[in-house]
Amino acid sequence: MNQRTYTGGCACGAIRYEATGEPIAELHCQCRHCQMRSGTGHSSYVVFAGVGAVTVTGEPRSWRIAGDSGNEKIHAFCQTCGTPTHVTFAANPEITAIHPGSLDDPTWFHPTLMTYGSRGLDWDRHDPELTVLEKGPPA
Questions:
Q1: N or C terminus: fewer CB in 10 A for the chain?
Q2: What is the largest CA-CA distance in the chain?
Q3: Which residues pair with 62 in a beta bridge?
Q4: Residues pairing with 131 in the sheet
């Protein structure tokens, strides 16, 4: 079976990534951290699992913040152009979430889920076909 290879990176090209295989989730998140970081009503993610599922080249910078669970999310971005590229998780380092807007072909993104629907803003409309979780995904 042929596996799709997802490639992408930052706006200036200093950070590149490659992910092979099928994502375990494609979603939007309306938590307050995602709203603040994106500057809009939500952030979007293509999530991959497994050691080495995502390879990053270049020198991203990162910052950490504790989620509702108390576990740290590590947000990576290009130190030159500021583009957010991916998120990893201190409690589960085998999970990498890529921002689909940074994909070379963002049309591959097909979200099926909205997390933190309880924090959604009235002006941030979403596809009514999405499964909406009031909080984060179950552990």
A1: N
A2: 43
A3: 76
A4: 113
